[in-house]
Amino acid sequence: MIVIGARALATTLLRTTFIGPSGKAGKVTRMNICCIGGGYVGGPTMAMIAAQCPDIRVTVVDMDASRIDAWNSDQLPIYEPGLDELVMAARGRNLFFSTDIDQGIRTANIIFVSVNTPTKTYGIGAGSASDLTNVELCARRIAAAANGNKIVVEKSTLPVRTAESLKRVLQVNTNGYRFDILSNPEFLAEGTAMADLQTPDRVLIGGDNTASGRLAIQELVNVYARWVPRERILTTNLWSSELSKLVSNALLAQRISSVNAISALCEMTGADVDEVAFAAGKDSRIGPRFLRASVGFGGSCFQKDILNLVYLCRHYGLNEVADYWEQVITINTWQKTRFVRRMIETMFNTIAGKRIAILGFAFKKDTNDTRASAAIDVCRALLNERAQLAVYDPRVSSRAIFSDLARATGLPASELEKSVVCESDPYRAAAGAHALAVLTEWDEFKRLDFESIYRSMEKPAFAFDGRNILPHALMQSIGFDVQAIGKSVSAAAAMSAESVEEVPA
Hints:
The protein starts with 16 loop residues before the first strand and ends in an 8-residue tail after the last helix. It is of the alpha/beta class. It has helices at residues 42-52, 65-71, 83-90, 101-107, 133-145, 162-171, 193-198, 211-224, 238-269, 273-281, 302-315, 319-346, 374-384, 398-409, 413-416, 426-430, 450-456, 472-478, 489-497; strands spanning 17-19, 25-27, 32-36, 57-61, 95-98, 110-113, 150-154, 179-183, 203-206, 233-236, 355-359, 388-392, 420-422, 435-438, 462-465, 481-484. Strands 5-4-3-6-7-8 form a six-stranded parallel beta sheet, with helices on both faces. Strands 13-12-11-14-15-16 form a six-stranded parallel beta sheet, sandwiched between helices. Strands 1-2 form a two-stranded antiparallel ribbon. 42% of the residues lie in helices and 13% in strands. Helix 9 (238-269) crosses helix 11 and helix 13 (374-384) crosses helix 14.
């Protein structure tokens, strides 16, 4: 841990000299924060800071004008429960969205870098290393536009020692100014991001153990301490902070792949994976979180962070460690493949020409984010088998669905439209379908009128529950052939009818 001096010492950073619009030197009398990148991390994080710190001016900048227009409209580009209310309350007061990146940099004391860092698809490290092009471009833009000392905060998910690259770019382009680099990784779960920001388990801030580094850390600590208990704000060196983010996501993904691996064994032995996970989770050393079997994990972070970890381990010659973590991804991919294979085998070994209702396309409930969603891979595999898909998701637009499937399949929209239709409700999706497949755990899917759906479907009517949220016993009594992850449904239905203890989510 880095020991920080008295809180009052950091206030010197608020008096940084800057060049105002008139060209004359002045004093910053108000804290200004700029965030480069208005995506799933930058937008919500800055909205929370603005809401909790009304005296701080917060500006989110992005070169994507359509995204900034959306942030300035009544239809935000991101869906998160509670986000709309925060943005509407603070926008125009101390929260602003702009495409003027240079102005945002010039007026800011603290600059968050929250840009996309996708997995590389080319060159050295393709398929595992992060593409840091956007991060380097940000560093060069900050160096060119800066008019005073700045604190630069890594907010994007980055591989270890990225701060070193940022430092080098900034230091050789300083123009006489000082740039202090901090790491402040996000630990948000989409769908609960605003609650996670409001009451985080921890806030992690890494920086250099130098006089200016400690002052920079304290400055960011002061911002979060407005609403986060001080004991939950952890301070480390830069490299520990960067690695902690990768390790946290790797451990969470590992739990999901572990229970998914056990789900396959449960199906073979007649055990119920929910009951097994519930029993194991009662051990206080294990706990119940992230032990819910499913069709597989998705989202922008888990797979990318594990691949970063794998690449890092191989870079340092730790091949056995890399192989270990790579298996987490292997099991996740296998689980999706296994789900599709089970669908095909259950439906008489052919799904060509059959309509399948896809319920849910987001990678999890309460978000419209589809990045690395299991639904994309499942739908691609079903389309390869020449199925007809009717997709419904309450938050994902048809435009996003077709865009994702076009990238996944390589087919133009004109070809996809022959095999894919997006429906406005689950009942339309199920009408005339041979099967329905639940791929996102939206709460509304638990409360559907399954008798009505059954009547509208072809017979036999199959239900493939990729999230284990459906009322299996009820559906089976109606006439559905229900297939679920990690359980023999016929046995599970009989047991649930006898009112065994409910297994929590």
